Amino acid sequence: MNISRILLPFVALAAALHAGIADNAVRTRIAGIDLIACKTGVKDVVTFCGSLPAGDSFAGSGNLAVPTLVGAMLDQGTTTEDKFAIAQKLDSVGAELEFAVGGTLVEFSGKCLRKDLPMVIGLLAEELRSPAFSEEEFTKVKQQLAGQLQRALESTNYRAGQAFSEAIYQPGSPNYTPPTEAFLAAVKSATVTDLRAFHAKTYGPNTLTIVAVGDLDVAVLRAEVAKAFAGWTGGGAKISYPKAAPPDAERDQSIFMPEKPSVTVILGQASGLKYTDPDAIPLRIATAILGSGFTGRLMATVRDKEGLTYGIGSRVGNDSFTEGDWRISASFAPALLEKGLFSTRRELKKWYDDGVTSAELERTKTNLTGSYKVGLATTDGIAGMILVTVNRGFALTWLDEYPQKIDAVTLDQVNAAIKKHLNPDNMVLIQAGTIPAVAPAAKK
Fold first, then answer.
1. What pLDDT, in 10s, does the model give residues 382-399?
2. Cα–Cα dist 180/154, whole Å
3. Full DSSP string of 263-315
4. Are 124 and 97 spatial neighbours (Cβ–Cβ below 8 Å)?
5. Helix (H, G, I), strand (E, B), or coil: what is residue 169?
6. What are the backbone angles phi and psi of residue 124, rounded to the nearest 5°?
7. Model-level pTM?
């Protein structure tokens, strides 16, 4: 094994970014598109990603499933090529191109050799601009999506997550997950006409962002994007989500699922914070101290010391576009559920009442900045972080300032953020699995 050969791309990448990502990135508007290019020292390979706001929350009062179905049809053929011809073109050069739909965004990602970038950009534009929406492929996609949802209903993690979302968020929020039965009904009733109308209204260059990182000729990239997307217009306006009111829904829920080896537990609340808010980073640091991996208090106590859980952790999330949530997620054997919940609540209350220590703060700040820098050691990591950063509304300089922002957080800020934004006595508790306490009632 040639170690120097393996390390060379990462050394080159680090050298290229020594001056900072913002200094290496070039941001321009081409054919209406927000195009960000970051040239690095990695040879021959280009990684790209991007997004446009056309996710599930854009369904509005229409069919719930249409945004997801449109995204699923993007790689199922265009008006000029079927899906097999497109796949063959990508496979012949070892290129990748994938799409995904979330609450706010349709996102895409891919990778190719430098020489094949014009062809791949052309395919990306073709799939975004002119999907075929053929009835035959649409029928297949609906069947596949319905099958995935039916299988998901057997997952304790999925059932708990869906119930937590419904308890925390209102319909219209990008973080709201509708009841699966309602979404299945929407999939069944959706038509190709619905998809075409949504695509025409929502897709376009005005809100499209493309990020490319790697062995780039920026002038060539600009020219290819301009050519591939020439003449395309439109694109829905970005949604400005209002501050969420508490939903009028059942809070604590126990979802009995027979013959499951574990119970998924989510304990949490709406955080009231967006990522751009001043307390967002202090609360993230505090939350990492409580439950990030094996260094967190929850794993150290509830799992390692007391042996009550398969896995447990805490996180803050879903806050890029609107106020997000704070949660503890855990998995307990049914026989240990009661003890596990007691232990979890005890550690949560201790963390809330006493706060974190200076030693924990310094260790966690070091871990967070180290993980961040490791994440930027690949073109995939850089491209993804650039996209997340601009979608959150930050300037590119934020990417280089993040370690300093972490380092500047004080102990008082961290402990104050816990008390200001959380309330352990008023959190939602979701349990999904073979729950001993509700099993008799469920079997009647």
1. 999 999 999 999 999 999
2. 12
3. EEEEEEEE----TTSTTHHHHHHHHHHHHSGGGSHHIIIIIIIT---SEEEEE
4. yes
5. coil
6. -60, -50
7. 0.91
- Helical H segments across 174-254, by residue range: 180-189, 192-202, 218-228
Q: DSSP string covering 74-101, please?
A: TTS-BSSS-HHHHHHHHHHTT-EEEEEE
Q: Over the stretch 186-235, which tens digit does the pLDDT of each residue have?
A: 999 999 999 999 999 999 999 999 999 999 999 999 999 999 999 999 99
- Coil, strand, or helix at residue 239? coil
Pairwise CA distance, residues 205 & 51, whole Å: 10
Pairing assessment for the beta strands 428-433 and 253-256 based on DSSP bridges: parallel
Query: What are the structural domains, with CATH classification, of the chain?
Result: 19-228 (3.30.830.10), 253-443 (3.30.830.10)
Q: How many CA atoms lie within 13 A of 155 on its CB side?
A: 11
Residues 6+ apart with CB under 8 A from 95: 89, 110, 111, 112, 113, 116, 119, 120
pLDDT tens for each residue of 99-109: 999 999 999 99
pLDDT at 78: 97
Q: What burial class does residue 424 get, using C-beta atoms within 10 Å of its C-beta: 0-12 exposed, 13-18 middle, 19+ buried?
A: middle
Percent above pLDDT 70 for the chain: 93
Separation between Cα atoms, residue 390 and residue 385, nearest integer Å: 9
Residue with tokens 């025409």: 200
| Eight-state DSSP code of residue 44 | S
Structure tokens at 422: 């959380």
Query: What does the mean pLDDT of the chain come to?
Result: 92
Residues 6+ apart with CB under 8 A from 421: 271, 272, 273, 279, 283, 326
